[in-house]
Amino acid sequence: MGAYILRRLLLIIPTLIGIMIVNFTLTQFVPGGPIEQIIARMEGGGDVFEGIAGGGGEIESSDSEYAGARGLPPEFIEELEREFGFDKPPLERFLNMMWNYIRFDFGESYFRSIGVLDLVWEKLPVSITLGLWSTVIAYLVSIPLGIRKAVRDGSSFDTWTSALIIVAYAIPGFLFAILLLVLFAGGSYFQIFPLRGLTSDGWENMSLLGKIADYFWHITLPVLASTISAFATLTLLTKNSFLDEIKKQYVVTARAKGLSEGKVLYGHVFRNAMLIVIAGFPSVFIGVFFGGSLIIETIFSLDGLGRLGFEAAVARDYPVIFGTLFFFGLIGLVVGILSDLMYVLVDPRIDFDTREG
């Protein structure tokens, strides 16, 4: 197992470099870089893409490669290029960036005058809240429901719960979020939950129990909205895993020995059936964590990593884009290794070294 982990750790390096090369190369061909953003703001254009599309009457200067730069002195443009590092060739900029990232120096945001890690740390509470609680709730509901559906396969309970699951899966998260707001956040009916934020004003002055209650009061609706579509996959995966195990010979033998149905299901079947479900928890959590819904964050006025990524992409804030890409890409690759370790923890019979041999 040690040799397998070592190989996986070494594989992280070329994988991460490949991810960065592809994304860095793509940005070289995307119009509307950070300098164009600054020029558009100075010229009062509001949006650099208007100039790129030719919709704002912008004229490209004859001695500048930047759209909308007419009237600005070349010295000013050169100073901007030096400040952002665009006076260097792309290869040199990429190598400098990777050298800094290896030392976990992600620099500062172009437009916020704050370090990238500090900016990410500021947004983490929202993303952790949505990712962690959505994953935990999905597992707590889906596993018992999937087991119940497997035991009662083909019954009316199995049929109507499958119909509910399919309907829930078909409802977009943002649409469900709007429905929750209309029903329970003062939209048209009840004013039960707050509209925005993770905490209320004056949260620091509340008691410990008051802080906990206020926190859960605020996250109820956004967590429900982000969890609604996760039930289907986990529930059906759990059900199918149990059905596959129930049909195996060792289950028939256990029942023939006179073991109770509960002991057969939870003493023998559960561990084998839950292997793929439980071992996949790290990857499921990190998927929900990274894929924080921009729309749900916007609807509930939550300032998380989803909005951060969107705003950085629109503003062409390259330090934020590449810094978070490197940081979370590294975490994602490490979590992939942790998922393999979870398989071994749940079922010690699995040996990745033997498989690879």
Backbone structural class: mainly alpha
Shape annotation? globular
CATH superfamily of the largest domain: MetI-like
Share in β-strands: under 5%
Q: What can be said about the biggest beta sheet?
A: none
Domain ABC transmembrane type-1: 124-343
Main location: membrane
Organism: Palleronia caenipelagi
Membrane topology: Multi-pass membrane protein
Name its key features.
single chain; 357 residues; mainly alpha; MetI-like fold; 0% strand
Task: Spell out the blueprint of helices and strands.
Layout: H1 2-27, H2 34-42, H3 48-53, H4 74-84, H5 90-102, H6 116-151, H7 156-170, H8 173-184, H9 208-227, H10 230-246, H11 249-256, H12 261-273, H13 275-279, H14 281-290, H15 294-299, H16 305-315, H17 318-346, H18 352-356
Helix pairs in contact: 1-17, 6-9, 6-10, 6-14, 6-17, 7-10, 8-9, 10-12, 14-17, 16-17
Family: Belongs to the binding-protein-dependent transport system permease family.
Pfam families: BPD_transp_1
Subcellular location: Cell inner membrane; Cell membrane
Word description of this protein:
Mean pLDDT is 78; it is low at 48-63. Helices cover 71% and strands 0% of the residues. The chain contains 18 helices and no strands. It has 357 residues and is mainly alpha-helical. The longest helix has 36 residues, at 116-151. It has two domains: 31-105, no CATH class; 124-174 and 228-356, MetI-like (MetI-like fold, Orthogonal Bundle), CATH 1.10.3720.10. It has helices at 2-27, 34-42, 48-53, 74-84, 90-102, 116-151, 156-170, 173-184, 208-227, 230-246, 249-256, 261-273, 275-279, 281-290, 294-299, 305-315, 318-346, 352-356. The chain is globular, with a radius of gyration of 26 Å.
